[in-house]
Design goal:
2 strands; 49% helix
Amino acid sequence: MAHDLVSVAPAPSTKHALAERLTPRLAEKFCAVPSYFLANYSRIKPHEGAAGLTSTEALLIIHLLDFKWTKDAPFPSVGNLAARLGISDRAVRDAMKRLEGLGLIKREARTHASGGRSSNKFHLDGLFKRLEKMLDDDELAAAAKLAAAKVESLEAVLGVGAAHG
C-alpha cells in the first residue's frame, strides 16, 4: 500500500503580524515608513553644518508616504495635509518648498478633465535616492571602520604600526 506524502507548510508566524503588534482594527490601515528614514531624517541636510529636516518636514513626508499606495506619486491636497498635521496651508507649502529645494520631493501639477487645477502629485524619488545614498555611505563607513580595527589588531599582534614606529 503506497502512502501519499503531503507537504504541509508551517503555519505562518503571527509574531510579526500587524494585528499582533498593534490591534486588529489599527492594523487595517497603516503607513509603511522606512525605519532608516525615522532614525536618520535629521541627517538629511543641504550641506554639512546645515540644519537637518525638522519634525514638521519629517511628518509631512510620513503623511505623503501614507498616501503612496502604489508605485505612482501620491496626490493629497495641501488642505488635507494641513488638517492632518494641525498646521496652516501656508506652513505646509513652506515645508514643501524646503523639501523641494533639498531635492527630496518634486511637485507635479495636475488638472481636472475640465481643465481646472487639482492637487499636485508629489514625487518622492529624490527622498528615496538620498536615503539609498546615505545607506551606502553608512555601509562604507562601517566597512572602513571594521577594516581599520582589523589592521590595528593585526599590527598589535605583529608588533608594528604607529605605536611601534
